[in-house]
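> forwarded from #structure-qc
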């Protein structure tokens, strides 16, 4: 793995030396000014240089999957932090076209509507795949909702409750911290603002203005035990939550405020600036063996880089209880990646490279069940609602072992000559 990583690093480094930061500011790019966002540039190259080096220094790639050693390679991590730090120094120095979007525009990272098919991502998207017009996956919006209000195909993509638990409190603490203030009687109170942005929970409005009687029963999310939003595993949520990170309120049959006619464009960037901050934090901490570790290429240390992302969302900084110990801090880094990059296609690779794919609780999916403690009031703030009998149950468990950290090679390939071995366990 490292041999290939070194080849990639040489290519990315050479590309960074040759490419401009912004093609709009070059003679060649001036002919397509304003339309150069998909052309590889120096920021792409340095960002992927850092990411590939961090992967090469991660536990799976350093130690293999057949043991419990989860140590990093400090040298790879230092090199990664150096490359990623250069990107962040240029961004914060105003030398690039990239910047974090304000949190009130957070949804614009993932979808746009009635903006002439504007590509989502704004100033934060570094690398994206091209799409054109209606080829924007807006139909997938139906799969995030219960089938009674969507034009879906029977697929319900509901978030596992144990994953939702990564979204801690606005005070910056994880739910499990005894000082977090989390209460099973009011489980949606005081949470990380990204929780409210990403998830639909019990009592939240699902339909803006139902005019047809058949939709009025679904105006609010009835996700309590026996509610109509969680009573059928094939048509409703199996976990007590629905994923609204990628869809606007109104993307349903009742409101019909989405889709082709509304130029709804749903698209995920392959790499965005927020991830660069989190990659840097991980690399700097592991490279220099401390949460206060930092590269000479950037003024911020690992903790401060995480706090940049939290501050954008209105979450308090990493608590001091998690900044004195490297492993405790890494728990917060892993949790921050889970929260900020939720459902954007990074989690499986993260769990693999951290060697956590086979470990509990990372190999389970759960549901949260509860009863409403009071009569439903549509005018009440759903964050303040009280519940009773709150409990969490396992829905499924992955039966994975160490061999699943790598895919098997084809039998025809590994029988060509004795030195070409099969991956372990296959």
């Amino acid at each position: 793995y490292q041999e290939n990583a070194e080849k990639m690093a040489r290519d990315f480094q050479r590309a960074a030396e040759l490419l401009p930061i912004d093609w709009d500011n070059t003679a060649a790019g001036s002919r397509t000014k304003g339309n150069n966002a998909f052309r590889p540039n120096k920021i792409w190259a340095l960002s992927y240089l850092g990411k590939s080096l961090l992967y090469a220094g991660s536990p799976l790639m350093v130690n293999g999957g057949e043991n419990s050693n989860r140590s990093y390679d400090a040298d790879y991590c230092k090199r990664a932090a150096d490359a990623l730090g250069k990107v962040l120094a240029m961004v914060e120095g105003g030398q690039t076209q990239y910047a974090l979007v304000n949190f009130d525009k957070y949804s614009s990272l993932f979808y746009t509507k009635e903006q002439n098919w504007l590509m989502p991502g704004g100033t934060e998207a570094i690398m994206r795949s091209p799409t054109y017009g209606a080829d924007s996956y807006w139909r997938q919006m139906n799969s995030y909702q219960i089938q009674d209000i969507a034009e879906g195909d029977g697929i319900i993509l509901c978030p596992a409750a144990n994953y939702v638990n990564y979204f801690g409190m606005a005070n910056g603490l994880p739910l499990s911290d005894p000082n977090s203030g989390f209460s099973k009687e009011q489980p949606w109170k005081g949470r990380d603002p990204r929780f409210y942005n990403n998830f639909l929970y019990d009592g939240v409005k699902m339909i803006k203005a139902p005019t047809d009687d058949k939709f009025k029963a679904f105006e609010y999310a009835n996700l309590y035990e026996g509610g109509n939003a969680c009573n059928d595993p094939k048509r409703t949520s199996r976990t007590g939550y629905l994923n609204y990170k990628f869809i606007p309120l109104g993307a349903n049959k009742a409101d019909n405020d989405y889709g082709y006619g509304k130029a709804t464009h749903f698209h995920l960037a392959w790499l965005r600036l927020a991830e660069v901050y989190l990659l840097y934090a991980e690399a700097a901490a592991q490279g220099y063996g401390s949460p206060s570790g930092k590269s000479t290429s950037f003024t911020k240390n690992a903790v401060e880089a995480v706090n940049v992302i939290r501050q954008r969302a209105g979450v308090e900084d990493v608590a001091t209880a998690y900044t004195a110990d490297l492993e405790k801090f890494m728990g917060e880094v892993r949790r921050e990646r889970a929260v900020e990059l939720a459902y954007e296609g990074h989690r499986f690779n993260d769990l693999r490279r951290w060697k956590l794919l086979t470990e509990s609780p990372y190999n389970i999916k759960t549901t949260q069940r509860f009863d409403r403690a009071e009569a439903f009031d549509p005018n009440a703030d759903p964050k303040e609602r009280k519940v009773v009998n709150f409990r969490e149950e396992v829905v499924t468990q992955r039966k994975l072992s160490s061999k699943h950290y790598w895919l098997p090679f084809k039998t025809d390939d590994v029988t060509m000559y004795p030195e070409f071995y099969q991956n372990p366990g296959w």
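QC bot note: The chain is about 30% helix and 10% strand. The domain at 2-103+270-353 is CATH 1.25.40.900 (Serine Threonine Protein Phosphatase 5, Tetratricopeptide repeat).
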